[in-house]
Amino acid sequence: xxxxxxxxxxxxxxxxxxxxxxxxxxxxxxxxxxxxxxxxxxxxxxxxxxxxxxxxxxxxxxxxxxxxxxxxxxxxxxxxxxxxxxxxxxxxxxxxxxxxxxxxxxxxxxxxxxxxxxxxxxxxxxxxxxxxxxxxxxxxxxxxxxxxxxxxxxxxxxxxxxxxxxxxxxxxxxxxxxxxxxxxxxxxxxxxxxxxxxxxxxxxxxxxxxxxxxxxxxxxxxxxxxxxxxxxxxxxxxxxxxxxxxxxxxxxxxxxxxxxxxxxxxxxxxxxxxxxxxxxxxxxxxxxxxxxxxxxxxxxxxxxxxxxxxxxxxxxxxxxxxxxxxxxxxxxxxxxxxxxxxxxxxxxxxxxxxxxxxxxxxxxxxxxxxxxxxxxxxxxxxxxxxxxxxxxxxxxxxxxxxxxxxxxxxxxxxxxxxxxxxxxxxxxxxxxxxxxxxxxxxxxxxxxxxx
Length: 451
Known about the structure:
Layout: E1 3-7, E2 16-19, E3 24-27, E4 34-35, E5 46-51, E6 54-59, E7 66-68, E8 71-73, E9 75-77, E10 83-86, E11 89-94, H1 120-128, H2 136-151, H3 155-169, E12 174-179, E13 188-194, H4 202-211, E14 215-217, E15 239-246, E16 251-259, H5 267-303, H6 314-326, E17 333-336, H7 343-352, E18 361-365, H8 371-379, E19 380-381, E20 393-394, H9 396-399, E21 404-408, H10 415-427, E22 429-430, E23 439-440, E24 444-449
Parallel strand pairs: 3-4, 17-24, 18-21, 21-24
Antiparallel strand pairs: 1-2, 1-11, 3-5, 5-6, 6-9, 7-8, 7-10, 10-11, 12-13, 12-16, 14-15, 15-16, 19-20, 22-23
């Protein structure tokens, strides 16, 4: 491995350092392989490490950041020709081994990458220097984004608004915003912009989420890095831009833009969008924290006196323990007990302690209705579905969308309606009486019987 680090600015300009297999340390104090005596350089600033045959730069939580191709990084795999900046000193990374070169369809097909970590001072540094200065329209856009993000306290609306603002500023034809769950699951699409249905490449999503990189391709069809992407075969996409929305400790999602024009996106577009995504990542930290607090508040409320179950006995304590365990999950629940023992109170407590607590709670007593009326009450009907159906009516299932449907005396439901309820549980869809197409519904079912 004969990679080199060539000094292109600073007191040691023109000098080169051989990078072997040992860690190469850069900082202000004695003992570093490269000592830079500047106030902007931390005592232990960054390191170059050989990882799986490729050199990576690792920032050591420096005060003013480590930059690669003008972008702040926490960790970055280096490619031949990458420009590193520590303080005011610039360095060029030259990889001697062929495998050090990133696969490219054109010389500039992969322009730059950012990293997962985005601190406020790094965003400010990106906007103020280390490349072309931000124009007045760009600064106005970032100000609009910051103001818009302040207005949204939930993750999905926040991501959607950011997508709309950036889509108007970029030469993109389609775009999408994807979010992970608070637990860090794979990102899912929460918003789209532009004409047609955007289906982000899983290859690109994996690269962004695993490497924490803001990626730009200006010739998708000729880039070997995307040669295996099934989702990009046979489509008109020529340019791609994908950016992580990263908080202080986790990746919240990503923004994805595509164009049918070669070279539609440029490095200034990447820098602007990366800064906006960095701001969004910090805003998503706050939004996710508030969402967690709201969920915890609902859980504590369900465990307290608001459950409406008053008493003190071993049996009641077992019931409350059951409610606290079952309420947060999405499973269907069957409550059994004699009439008048408070099954609906238990159902309401389950609803209040669930993630659906802000949604509706709809109760139906199945024993009070005939088969025909019960079917209409549950599923609704279209205008003209039967004699007397003078208008479309939504059923209790639709009324409970996003919340909980409580079916009391479920044992009285006729078998023909039970079959339709089974489809609701399996497919999350049903048909109104007289309808020609199914209706999707998101509802949790809690049932009760005295049998």
